[in-house]
Amino acid sequence: MIHVNRGATSLGVFSEEEVREGLSTGRFAPGDIGWREGMANWQPLSQFPELGSAAPAAPPPQIGAMLTTAPSPSAPVVKTEPLAIWSFVLSLLALACCGFILGIPGVICGHLALSKIQKEPQLQGRGLATAGLIIGYVAIAFWLIYVVFFGGLSFLKSISHSGT
């Protein structure tokens, strides 16, 4: 089975005979690119040896066409560290409404995520964890200042009203 693309548009998956017939009838152009299991990269249909008689020589495809993603089974799956995501989410929520309740867990998750990412370099999420740490620390500081300032004002106000 051969995957056929024209530029960045997928035309579908076809048998070798269907591609040969499509080349001879004009359905496919020799410059259309194809890929089949076992190939490292996409290449013009005119360069497939088994289609040689059906496909006249064509100019090489455009560079953008070669950048299309091949359905490669050997492509590594990259995993984002879940603690980095939790750090970012908890810290944003802490900044918005919950202060210490979610800010401290957000900072802890951020430090744990960075530690795991450092031990296992194939994990992603360093930026999320760093952002979670920064936002978490800012949220904690903001809510600490808010509580001290407005709590202090409230306390002073209650003292001045109780003394009169």
Task: Explain the overall architecture.
This protein is an alpha+beta fold and 164 residues long. The protein has 2 domains: 2-66, no CATH class; 82-162. 54% of the residues lie in helices and 10% in strands. The protein has helices spanning 16-25, 63-66, 82-98, 100-119, 126-162, and strands at 2-6, 9-14, 33-35, 43-44. It has a 4-stranded antiparallel beta sheet with strand order 2-1-3-4. A hairpin with a 7-residue loop joins strand 3 and strand 4. Helix 3 runs parallel beside helix 5 (126-162) and helix 4 packs antiparallel against helix 5. It is rod-shaped, with a radius of gyration of 30 Å. The N and C termini lie far apart (91 Å).
Notable characteristics:
164 residues; alpha+beta; 2 domains; 54% helix; rod-shaped
Beta-strand portion reads 5-15%
Number of strands: 4
How many H/I helices? Answer: 5
Give the helix proportion (percent range): 40-55%
- Category by helix and strand content: alpha+beta
Q: What would you report as the Rg, rounded to the nearest angstrom? A: 30 Å
Our measurement of the CA-to-CA distance between the termini, rounded to an integer number of angstroms, reads 91 Å
Oligomer: single chain
Summarize the structure.
This protein has 164 residues and is α+β, with helices and mostly antiparallel strands. It has helices at 16-25, 63-66, 82-98, 100-119, 126-162; strands spanning 2-6, 9-14, 33-35, 43-44.
What's the topology here?
Layout: E1 2-6, E2 9-14, H1 16-25, E3 33-35, E4 43-44, H2 63-66, H3 82-98, H4 100-119, H5 126-162
Antiparallel strand pairs: 1-2, 1-3, 3-4
Helix pairs in contact: 3-4, 3-5, 4-5
